[in-house]
Write a structure and sequence with these properties.
- Residues 25-94 form the DUF2087 domain.
- Pfam families: DUF2087.
- Helices cover 35% and strands 7% of the residues.
- It has helices at residues 7-10, 33-47, 56-64, 70-79; strands at 53-54, 83-85, 92-94.
- A three-stranded antiparallel β-sheet has the order 1-3-2.
- Strand 2 (83-85) and strand 3 form a beta hairpin.
- Helix 3 (56-64) crosses helix 4.
- The radius of gyration is 16 Å and the shape is globular.
């Protein structure tokens, strides 16, 4: 039997910039979880300030600058632990990836 390297071991990670067109818009939301995580980390770093609360319309507007499906991006950011949200959904905050359940902000929930 010959050993084959795993597909991920033989490929170097592609830069997140490859996901964007020349005008700065996201071409598509990646389907592969690892690739999507890279994108979400990038969006969190570039669109949201640390330690600041955002109302949902502000989150939507920031995400609309890169892709029309802002609601899917917002959901991925919360589920992935990049953005935390209050239980009532009125406030969002960038968070360190601790993966709090349901993306709730413990101090504000």
């Amino acid at each position: 039997m010959t050993s084959h390297p795993s597909p991920s071991a033989s490929r170097a990670p592609r830069p997140v910039a490859d996901l964007f067109s020349a005008d700065g818009r996201l071409k598509a939301i990646p389907r592969r979880p690892a690739r999507r995580e890279d994108l979400l980390a990038h969006l969190t770093e570039t669109l949201f300030e640390d330690g600041r609360d955002y109302r949902e319309p502000e989150v939507n507007q920031a995400l609309l600058t890169v892709h029309e499906d802002f609601s899917a991006l917002r959901r991925y950011l919360v589920i992935g632990g990049f953005l935390a949200r209050t239980k009532d959904g009125s406030a969002y905050r960038r968070q360190r990836r601790t993966g709090s359940p349901e993306g709730a902000i413990p101090a504000l929930a």
